[in-house]
Amino acid sequence: MNKGPNQSLQRAAGRVLPFGTLIGICSFLLLCTANGYAHGEDYIDETLVYDTLERGAVEPGYWFDIGRNDSQHFMRHNLALEYGITDHWMIDARATGIDEYHDGFHFDSSRLETRYRFFDAGTLPVDIAVSGEINSTRDEEGHQIFGIEPRLILSRDFGSLNLTLNLATEIPFNRHSRSFEARGGCEYDVTDFFHVGTELRYDTEEHAVGVVPQIWFTFPYKLTLKAGYSYDFGATHERFLRVSLVAEF
After folding, report:
1. Cα–Cα distance between 218 and 237 in angstroms, integer?
2. Residue 90: domain span
3. Is residue 2 part of a domain?
């Protein structure tokens, strides 16, 4: 839900690769070649993967952001907890606080998400899952905007490479404008220990285009350390460094 919006840069990005073309390329790639194995960890920003936690598994996580937008510097602290209800169904809760240079520390956003995948990875040419989310986020006036977000998750593994596409609609309760969001991610397992990847995102309401290159380190005992840099070609021009630590029990 990190949204930000420099319209000249956005228009330049649209001329290089139109949004519809990007979706078409991602969909085509998802349908090609043979399937490998599933990538179970969500991407570092907002792109959700197809895989879910095993039944009874618990996964706490913490990530820290440091960055700035056009108005001020900030630090964000995110706490998350995931739980596997069945092998195909899970829930995910997250709360975020933000410390801003001018405004001090305050509650920023929250979400409660549930995700269901229909088959085991590789059963279909493209792995399909659905997600539903209730969320809140703080606007520029300090008010919490509540909403729901249904999401379609498409995924495909090509051996060590994963391509994921998320298509979501943000439906706010206390404002009239809806938005459509598309998020895509690619992750490559260089080794069992070291992974590299990136995310792309687009928001129709804020006309925001963002890119998030990232690296992952997978340690024994299902401990994962991720780091990435988010750069938003939008009106607030938000950019930040994120470091995330996730453990599964």
Report:
1. 31
2. 7-247
3. no
